[in-house]
TrEMBL record:
Belongs to the phosphate/phosphite/phosphonate binding protein family. InterPro entries: PhnD, Phosphnate-bd. Coiled coil: none annotated. GO terms for biological process: organic phosphonate transport; transmembrane transport. This is Phosphonate transport system substrate-binding protein. Residues 1-22 form the signal peptide. It comes from Mesorhizobium australicum. One of its GO terms (cellular component) is ATP-binding cassette (ABC) transporter complex. The keyword Glycosyltransferase does not apply. The keyword Acetylation does not apply. Keywords: Signal.
Amino acid sequence: MFRKALLAAAALGALVAHSAQAEDLKEFRIGIIGGENEADRLRNFQCMVDKLPAAIGVEKVSLFPAADYDGTIQGLLGGTLDYAELGASGFAKIYLADAKAVEPILTTVQTDGATGYYSIMVARKDSGIKTLADLKGKKLGFADPDSTSGYLIPSVTLPKDLGGAAVKDYFSETGFGGGHENLVLEVLKGTFDAGTTWGSGVGDFSEGYTSGNLRKMVDKGILDMDDLTEIWKSPLIPNGPIVVRTSLDADIKSKFKDFMINLPKADPACFSAIQGGDFTGYTEVTTEFYQPIIDARKAQIGS
């Protein structure tokens, strides 16, 4: 009798939990990291709002553009977002704070088959700056404290190319541009002598490469690549992950993953809009793929 009561209680508990979970999934919440004009970000992700509800079985899909990277990171840590696309450093920050908050499921594949991209340092072409040596004692701008290409990787790898000098000692001043797009605009305005952004490194610099911030700015008509010159390029960085809330309903998670994997062929325009350039598609990833970035971020925090 006691055993039957326990089983009945367990069944009731499971039913209540399932109902609560289903209630949570009426709205699928998409986080969009900062660094680009908000209207552009909302427009680029509108196709997800239109297509996802039917594909994954929810009533509504909502977009939550953050002012900066950390806004999206905190939303994922707090469980108020269900999906976002992050840089590897942003994922590392979440993982180091709560390894069970989100899980990486997919990343993009470049047109040359690579699953990585580069930090690209640019300066105004008319500045006379052509090399890192020309930048000694000048102002360097980073994109965002939580950006992989815009801060973490340059801060970790630049010293080797600066003859072992620390970034803070080599440059007269460093600062943040408020996201990749704004950073490039600040370089053009002269706020910084050079700045770090990101690009695929595939194709021609003169076109902003095949994908990345420079390419997005060119496509929007707010950047003429003839105004910039490339000063430095980092080692290859793992493409950032598509992450989902770990506690998300397994069926929804599976349907969402299938939707994304099929998106490049099912709706190439939507795929290109949300990714910001030309990619061949997605490939599956796990936390292990980002372990070097997690280690780099952990080392930076401890330094």
